[in-house]
Amino acid sequence: MRVTPPDVVLFLTGYVRELAAAEGIDVKVTNKEPADLAIPLPTPLIVLRDDGGSRMDWTTFDRSVGASVLAGSKRYDKPAVELARWLAGVLFDDALPLIEGSPIASVVFDGCNGPTDAAEVLDVTRLYLTAQYVAIGSW
User: Fold this and answer.
1) How far are the Cα atoms of 91, 119, 138 from residue 129, in angstroms, in the given order?
2) Angstrom distances, CA of residue 132 to CA of 27, 52, 78, 93
3) pLDDT tens by residue, 30-45
4) Any idea where the domains of the chain sit in the sequence?
5) How far apart are CA 132 and CA 112, in angstroms?
6) β-pair partners for 71
7) Phi and psi, residue 122, nearest 5°
8) How confident is the model at residue 83 (pLDDT cuts 50, 70, 90)?
9) Could you read off the pLDDT of 53-73 as tens digits, one per residue?
10) Which DSSP letter does residue 66 get?
11) Phi, psi (deg, nearest 5) at residue 112
12) Which of 11, 30, 53, 138 shows a CA-CA span of 20 to 30 A to 75?
């Protein structure tokens, strides 16, 4: 039987977007960095990307997700730091498997890292974090 790897980023992008809106956090959440990224940013930006992973067994896959948070400026990093810490709490939450429609079976805690400073040419603070999951494919 053919098993299709899960699209964890698709799920997380929608989930983070909905959760931010519900909590009154003004942020743009996407899976692609805008080609025309320019400062000042009209709203803080979260970019989620699939960092891949291996197939673990018949139905489960190891999946790593990278997240960039861009906000504020290089001298005023507080908005980015606060948003990145919020996002880490969301992406590292061991309740993610319980959310309806979630392909995540478990959070791999030793694969959850950051947030940490990341290099950025523009005058905006960029923080990066990673989250690792065991996710279930579909058939």
Assistant:
1) 9, 13, 27
2) 23, 10, 26, 11
3) 999 999 998 999 999 9
4) 8-136
5) 6
6) 125
7) -70, 160
8) very high
9) 999 999 999 999 999 999 999
10) E
11) -100, 115
12) 30
Dist CA 77 CA 120 (whole Å)? 13
pLDDT at 139 over 90: no
Chain center to CA of 40: 22
Q: How far is CA 18 from CA 11, 26, 37, 78, in A?
A: 11, 11, 23, 23
Rg of the chain (C-alpha set)? 15
Task: Report the run of H or E that residue 74 belongs to, with start and end.
Answer: none
Encoded tokens for 104 = 């995540």
Question: In 10 A of CB 124, how many CB atoms?
Answer: 22
| Full-model pTM | 0.95
pLDDT in tens, 124-138: 999 999 999 999 999
Architecture of domain 8-136: 2-Layer Sandwich (3.30)
Give me the torsion for CA of 33, 134, 18, 43, rounded to 10°. Answer: -30
